[in-house]
Amino acid sequence: MELIDKLKWRYAAKAMNGKTVAEDKIERILEAARLAPTSSGLQPFEIFVIKNQEIKEKIKPVAWNQSVVTDCSHLLVFAAWDTYTADRINHMFDLTNEIRGFENQGWEDYRQLLLNSYPQKDAEVNFNHAAKQAYIAFSQAITAAAFENVDATPLEGFDADAVDEILGLREKGLRSAVLLPLGYRKEDKDWLVNLVKVRKPMEELVTVMD
Ligand SMILES: Cc1cc2nc3c(=O)[nH]c(=O)nc-3n(C[C@H](O)[C@H](O)[C@H](O)COP(=O)(O)O)c2cc1C
Q: Are 180 and 73 within 8 A, CB to CB?
């Protein structure tokens, strides 16, 4: 199947059947998220992979009781940095130097530019910026899941403070941004499964300027 066919196949499953997704598929979905581009390459987020049923059961009531939270196979929690700090910025710049094996003045100047701007900003502004980056990885994970014929339900309907508390994210300098249950659709219990996908026509979305 071509990518577009896979994207037409995918939908935000409202019911999942509890079947386990093979670990090699999960690994490739996470790899797609890891490979996502991010602003300045900072990857200002972490991904928690919840397989533990008890933790899923704790999250469900603070996620509008959505059944996919407990009936999924793996629940991904995209947690963004609560702010940008010098340590966090330096870590990614140092990692780049280490992996590439050389230092470059332009890159070091760019490091200083970020160090002189991001950490001084309001933490909420920084979290929102970091969360946007997490959404890019989240989106790639959704596409990768479709590629693997795995259902994924993007999920913003949850109490972020409560999820942070359950997972102890604040102590780690993280805040939950968005959830992604991965699993398999339960066709006979899902009202959405046979409904036609609705998207704006291309001309409402795209303006071409020659
Ligand atoms: C960021 C985001 C948050 C969403 N949150 C929820 C949610 O909490 N519960 C839910 O059932 N669907 C949720 N959705 C699914 C959307 O309603 C769905 O993707 C949209 O209507 C398009 O339909 P489709 O994904 O089935 O093609 C969310 C989607 C996105 C991208």
A: no
Calculate ∠ Cα 43-12-70, nearest 5°.
85
Angstrom distance (rounded) from CA 210 to CA 196: 33
**Rounded distance between C-alpha atoms, residue 90 and residue 75, angstroms:** 30
Residue partners of 148: CB distance under 8 A and separation at least 6 = 21, 25, 28, 29
Instruction: Tell me which of 60, 139, 153 to substitute to probe ligand 1's pocket, judged by most ligand atoms within 8 Å of the beta carbon.
Output: 153
d(CA 28, CA 92): 23
The angle formed by the CA atoms of residues 48, 50 and 54, to the nearest 5 degrees, is 140
What pLDDT, on a 0 to 100 scale, did the predictor assign at position 1? 66
| Cα 164 to Cα 158: distance, rounded to the nearest angstrom | 11
Q: What is the number of the ligand 1 atom nearest to the C-alpha of 158?
A: 8
pLDDT in tens, 54-109: 999 999 999 999 999 999 999 999 999 999 999 999 999 999 999 999 999 999 99
Among protein residues, the one with the nearest Cα to ligand 1's atom 9 is: 155
Question: Global pTM?
Answer: 0.97
Which residues pair with residue 74 across a beta bridge? 182
What are the start-end ranges of the H helices in the chain? 3-9, 23-34, 53-59, 68-71, 86-100, 105-115, 123-147, 160-167, 202-205
Among 143, 125, 139, 127, which Cα is nearest to 175's? 127
